[in-house]
C-alpha cells in the first residue's frame, strides 16, 4: 500500500510539473520573455514548489518521529527481556545452590513476574508486530510454571521467609524450566533486535 501511495504521489508531481512546464513553455514561445503571462507561470511554479515543500517536510518529520518511536520501543522491550534473562539466571542459581532464605526466592519471583508483565504495556504493544506479541504470549506458560513452583516451595516451608533453602537436585537435560525459559527469552531478544535493525534501515 505504501509503495502504491508513493508511486501515486510521484505521478501527481510529474503531471503538475508537466502542466506548469507546458504552460511556461507556451507563454515563452508565444508572448516572449518579458510578458506578464510568463511572470504568472513562474509565480505558479514557485507557489507549487512552496506548497509541495510545506506538505513534504512535516510528512517526513512525522515519518521520522514514528520510526524513532518504533526503534525506542524495540530497545525498551530488549532492555526488559535482558533484565528477565538475568533474573532467570539468578532464580536458577537460588534453586541450584540454596543457602539463601525463602524470602530471596519469593521476592525475586514476584519482581520477576511483575517485570514480565511490563511487556504487556499498551504503549509498548502499539509498536510491536504480531509475531513478537505471539512470542511474548508464548512465554506466559513458563512464567506461570515458575510462579507455581515458587508458591509450592513456600507452602512446603510453611511460608517461613527466614528458612534457608537447600539446593535442589539437578534436573535432567531438557527438563530444566529455567533453561527453556532463558532460551525463549533469548529468541525474543534476537527477534526484537532484528525488528529494530530493520526499522533503522
Give structural attributes.
201 residues; 81% helix; Four Helix Bundle (Hemerythrin (Met), subunit A); 7 helices; mainly alpha
Gist?
The protein is mainly alpha-helical and 201 residues long.
Folded structure, characterized:
There is one protein chain. The model has no long low-confidence stretch (mean pLDDT about 80). The protein has a single domain (about 1-200), classed as Four Helix Bundle (Hemerythrin (Met), subunit A) (Up-down Bundle). The chain is rod-shaped and about 100 Å long. It has about 200 residues and is mainly α. It is built from seven helices and no strands.
- CATH topology term: Four Helix Bundle (Hemerythrin (Met), subunit A)
Q: Catalogue the unreliable spans.
A: none
Order of helices and strands: HHHHHHH
Give the domain tally: 1
Please describe the biggest sheet, giving its number of strands, its sense, and whether it closes into a barrel. none
Q: What oligomeric assembly is this protein in?
A: single chain
The average pLDDT score comes to 82
**CATH top level class name:** Mainly Alpha
Q: Helix coverage percent of residues? A: over 70%
Number of helices: 7
> Which architecture per CATH?
Up-down Bundle
Instruction: Report the span from N to C terminus.
Output: 19 Å
Strand content: under 5%
Strand elements, count: 0
Radius of gyration: 31 Å
What overall form do the CA principal axes indicate? rod-shaped
User: From the helix content, strand content and strand pairing, which structural class follows?
Assistant: mainly alpha
Amino acid at each position: 500500500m505504501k509503495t502504491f501511495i508513493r508511486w501515486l504521489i510521484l505521478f501527481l508531481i510529474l503531471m503538475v510539473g508537466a502542466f506548469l512546464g507546458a504552460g511556461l513553455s507556451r507563454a515563452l514561445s508565444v508572448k516572449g520573455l518579458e510578458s506578464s503571462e510568463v511572470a504568472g507561470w513562474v509565480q505558479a511554479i514557485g507557489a507549487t514548489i512552496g506548497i509541495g515543500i510545506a506538505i513534504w517536510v512535516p510528512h517526513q518529520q512525522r515519518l521520522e518521529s514514528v520510526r524513532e518511536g518504533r526503534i525506542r520501543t524495540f530497545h525498551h522491550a530488549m532492555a526488559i527481556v535482558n533484565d528477565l534473562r538475568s533474573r532467570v539466571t539468578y532464580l536458577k542459581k537460588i534453586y541450584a545452590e540454596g543457602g539463601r532464605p525463602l524470602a530471596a526466592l519469593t521476592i525475586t519471583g514476584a519482581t520477576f513476574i511483575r517485570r514480565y508483565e511490563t511487556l504487556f504495556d499498551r504503549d509498548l504493544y502499539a509498536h510491536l508486530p504480531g509475531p513478537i506479541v505471539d512470542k511474548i504470549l508464548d512465554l506466559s506458560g513458563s512464567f506461570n510454571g515458575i510462579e507455581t513452583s515458587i508458591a509450592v516451595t513456600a507452602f512446603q516451608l510453611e511460608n517461613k521467609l527466614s528458612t534457608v533453602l537447600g539446593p535442589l537436585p539437578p534436573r535432567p537435560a531438557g527438563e530444566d524450566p529455567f533453561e527453556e525459559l532463558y532460551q525463549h527469552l533469548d529468541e525474543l531478544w534476537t527477534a526484537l533486535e532484528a525488528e529494530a535493525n530493520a526499522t533503522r534501515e
